[in-house]
Amino acid sequence: MTSPEPQNVSATSPTSSLSSVSANPATYIPLCEAHKAMDRALAGLDCSSEVLQACRLLRAFLTYSTGSSLAAIAQAISEASSTHLLLALAQHIKTSIIIPLKAAGGKTPASSLPSPCPLGPDDVDYYMNILEAQPCDQGTLRRLCLLRDGGRCVFTGIEDANLHENGLAYTQVAHIVPYALGYFDERNSVQLEARATVWDAIVRMFPDVTSRLNFNGNQINNLCNVITLCTDLHVAFGAFRCCLTPIDDADNAHTYKLETFPHFPRIYLDRIPGDRIIRLSTHDQRLELPSRHLLTLHSVIARVLNATGMGQLIDKVFEERSNLRCLAEDGSTDIARLLLLAS
Fold first, then answer.
1. Count of CB atoms within 10 A of residue 196's CB?
2. How far apart are CA 149 and CA 165, in angstroms?
3. What pLDDT is attached to residue 183?
4. Please, which residues have CB within 8 angstroms of residue 245's CB and are 6 or more apart in sequence?
């Protein structure tokens, strides 16, 4: 299957990723070696369209990753001592990260409380305790997320029509790391192994998720992993047709650039800030803001999917194979079956 041409990432140019880490020798050296490894593969007699696509994917990760994630992928590529190992690495990233995240995105189950009432100050601790004891309680999560985000979509500022008389749209809780990656049938050994494979790959590629945030699959319904979005924007965010890319801001660590990609619902463009800068804030200091590390993960995947054309390719594959019925309406996506799509 031939992948569409990339939009932004050259298969042979290392300039952008090298320039971003030139002041950090610990990352710069393995990054140079990573590009050399791909250059050797591209120049080899066994270079094929498969090798070209693999290098395109790996270079995209080098381009868009930062910090510990960039160091991790650069190290993994630099240690691939042959074209065969380079292909195996690209395939592992595709099957263990790209496809599961893309396929599971936007599959948050519907809340059992479709019309939540505003929470009073004394209610917050009560519902936080419920969420801790029952992490799959979507209704409680939605209540707290709406309170933290002021009952508005964080991209557009549109008020939720359930909470505000003049609200223009309905909102939903959107998971950053897809809900489906946190829940599975514990009695199913195949699902258990597939889930473990996905999380192992995520942790290796995005070390900050565990080393700094201590986040794992059992914390999918944590406030740090959700944001309030209009329904259509939840769909776009889950499909990686938009993302929040962290930017440096001395006054606010939770400052992001909203990036949009093909098939983003254009009707919302007039409601988004002209400079695309989104500053997240909480309306209750007890409620944790969305994690910068998780939004970074989502942003890297979104930009890689769109720069390489893999996003549209995967959408097409799932449309053609929809009879597999692996995307359940209740959000309980069978990750094990998703991995079969890469073969």
1. 13
2. 17
3. 74
4. 256, 257, 259, 295, 296, 299, 303
Rounded Cα distance between 18 and 22, Å, is 6
pLDDT digits (tens, 9 = 90+) for 52-64: 899 999 999 999 9
C-beta separation of 177 from 298 below 8 A: yes
Nearest to 287 by CA among 139, 154, 149: 149
Q: What is the pLDDT of residue 182?
A: 80
Task: Write the DSSP string, 259-294.
Answer: EE-TT--GGGGGGS-TT-EEE---SSTTSPPPPHHH
| Identity of residue 330 | D
Low-confidence ranges of the chain (pLDDT < 70): 1-28, 45-46, 106-136, 184-185, 250, 321-343
Beta carbons of 292 and 280 less than 8 angstroms apart? no
